[in-house]
Please model this.
Amino acid sequence: MIKTTKLAKVYRTEEVETTALNEVDVEIREGEFVSVMGPSGCGKSTLLNVLGMIDSPSSGDYFFNGEEVGRLSERKRSNVRKHNLGFVFQSFNLIDELTVYENVELPMLYTKVPSVERKKRVEELLEGMNIMHRRNHFPQQLSGGQQQRVAVARAIVNRPKLILADEPTGNLDSANGDEVMKILAQLNSEGTTILMVTHSQYCAEFGNRIIRMLDGQVVTENLVKQYL
Amino acid sequence: MLHNYLIIALRNLRRYRSYTVANVAGLALGITCSLLIFLLVRFHLSMDTHHRQAERIYRVVTDMQFGELITTPGVPNPFGQAFGVDFPEIKLGAQVRFEHNNLLSTQDGKQGRKKFMLDNEMAFAEPNFFEIFDYQWLKGNKNALTEPYTAVLTAGMAKRVFGNEEVLGQLIRVDNEHDYRIAGLLADIPDHTAFRQEVFLSMASYWAMTPKEEAGHWGGVSSNCQFFMVLPENVQASQIEQGLAALVKKNHEDHSKWSHHLQALPDIYFDMEYGGDVPKTLLWALSIVGLFLLGTACINFINLATAQALNRSREVGVRKVLGSGRRQLFAQFLLETGLITLAALLISVLLGSWALPFVNELTHAKLALRPGTDLGLLAFLGLALLGVTFLAGAYPALVLAGFRPALALKGKINTQTLGGYSVRRGLVVVQFVICQVMMITAIVVSGQMDHIKNASLGFNTDAVVMLPVPKPDKTKVQALRQQLQQHPGVLNVSFAFDAPAGNTHNTTNCRFDNRQADEDWYIATRPGDEHYVETFGLSLVAGRNLQPSDTIREYLLNEYAVQQLGFSSPADVIGKRFRVWGAWAPVVGVVRNFNTQSLRNPIEPVVIMSDVTQFSACGVKIDLSNTAHTLASLEQTWNRVFPDEYYAYSFLDERIGEFYEMESALLSLTQIFCGIAILIGCLGLFGLVSFMAARKQKEIGIRKVLGATATQILAVFGREFFLLILMAFVVAAPLGWWAMNAWLEDYAYRITLGFGIFAATILATLLIAVLTVGAQSLKASLSPPAKSLRSE
Model:
């Protein structure tokens, strides 16, 4: 599903040049649950952003479903993104001015899903996530765990092929974090490919492969124990 | 999607209430002003455009070269007839004589005669006048004015005078001289016409009353006697003007000094040279002010909206991640601006309706705000909605739509990465420039107003009551004088044509002593009796005052006339012969120079002579200790002498004040618009300082940790704003100086644009800036440094 060759991302200011990704080669097959680990500043979030097409690489190739997408225009990237990818963030990134229902519905407005279908899908997901009773609440009225469940619901409402999760449990206590990880594992077991950045070894082991990064490079790739 | 945009827009507007209020208020104020200015400018521009033949209607105007160029919208009395003979191809031509200050009365009824004083509502007109201009006849037709002593009234005037419209055959008396039979009724005249006449008398009546020599006199021209025509399609104005040169040659003795040309109807109202009402430049200046105010409101919006953009960065990031393109985001934020503009627009309509009566009173216009039925107004509002939305919304929307999602989602869009800081600073400078130019304007206009109101006209205007003299009748004048003088509150009484300075301005040719020809300049005539000098406080510089006389026996000149005659000492002309109006008489005295018109005009040569046939006014110098009683006595006395006439009095200083009515209105408008520009500018400043406080949060924290005091922190803000104000001043000062200098050039007596005006402007701007940004800056300077550093 994903293949990168010598993928690099360099941030330049007038005098300083920082290499966030240094010729990274990764491959993720359909149905995998890959965790990316590494110390702060090692480039894992940058890798996620580039693979999620919300940032563009400075050089190298990035193939998504066999198509080179690294050099696509913002408009085309946006099009690929909305039909294929779902995002879950550490800080949830729900829109404060929209209700739970409206937040989950939002991605479908961009993919022009008819309203009846939208309603059906949102309600199904909210039921599934056990937050239907909070559908008319605003994000700030929910607990962290509830917000992240809403964020996950929003990420999967368009039935994406790939979910990109950036420290999805980073702002949650262990019980809520566990719950979110179980949801992701469940989604993966149903066929959704997941790429997750995390600091937590515990969370990383919900996946089946762990990529470790340091200074913008992939240093090791290991299968998680149970898959060895 | 639209629904989603609307929901989020409304929720955001509600959440950031103070931002919404500042934005809506700023835009509403700007739009209200531009809306009122639009109505005002449109009202004036639409003047007399409703006539079907408007594009082919012309007025004949006259230029006379007597030393200096004298222009008048009038023509000599016999012009119309001569024109008819020389230009048979012009089928529609009409001579009109506009009248002023006429007494209209009804026949004796149960309550006696009803009397009405008409300021400018009466005219003598030839029947063709109603073919040239569009009047709607309710009863009768243009032939109603063929016969002498017939009249036509508008329905409104008929109701005012008779209480109903059944007036055909009724008689009206004009100036207690002649009765006119009403032979027609016109529909009321529209608001947007400069021809405010509501009583038309047949021109034949005027000819019947006018002595033959006066009716056929080519040597004089009154601005009241005008000639209009409709040019046929195949005739050009230039052709007629060529023919007019021949007409002048044929009829004028000194034809080289006279010329006539055609003035198109649309120019009549605006051409101040020929007695127009409103200069077009004033309308353009107002339009520019309107655009400035709208512009400053848009700038204000841009500043506030971009400062506010940070609060929306995460939403932008999320939307982008979910698949929104730049265009969609741009459209979304533009829509939000559209909503704010729409709210501002609706408020402006309400504010405008509230302010309209004041504007109408101030500008003597008849503006109406009816968005339901007024297509032009709707178009303006639509255009304002689109224009303001785009102008104010495009830049913030571009900034927002341009956020990089990866940064936006991590909350890493901050005031530094937001960019466009110099754009916003530039915009604030533009706002300051607008504010400062308006301040300079307000200071200069009010200074000039004070100057001309307080400047001496060269005579006394205090405690002088002006009474009308309906008929310059020797017996009545004597009777009135005697009775007035008996009153203890009356200090002096003078009969004259007018006060030394007045609205009526007559000039004539003159000849001095043994010179063989008339002087090549005209002299202003101020007929007045032997009490004229004393009553109006003129001062004699040579010779003596006039002796009592009913006819011209002696002349007084002013110093400037002496100078024009070529003498350096006033004493040199005493005893010399002088002639105006064909009457030779000796110059017996010279008075100090005084102004005969407003201070827009320079001093001119003046002659004073006693001629009872010219006395149409009476100046009464009163003792102000018991004014009410004295005024009541004046009225009683006057009514005893002129029982059939209409009593009206005015204080001379108030009449002089009316010279500057336009300036007063201009001053009020400038002050209002200046105040609004400052208010909007303050809102913009407030936006900028909030933004700056956020931007400098880290800097402030570090400075404080390093030991800076609150005052030193305040200086950080102060320096920034001082620079912006200074930059604006560098542009505004020369701009204001240039504009005001041009305006002041219209005044013969004017203030000088000194350093003080500009110093006051910059000080006022600094004060306003300090008051606006002070609280916010203080808050920032007092916040604990740990907070600002932690947030980084």
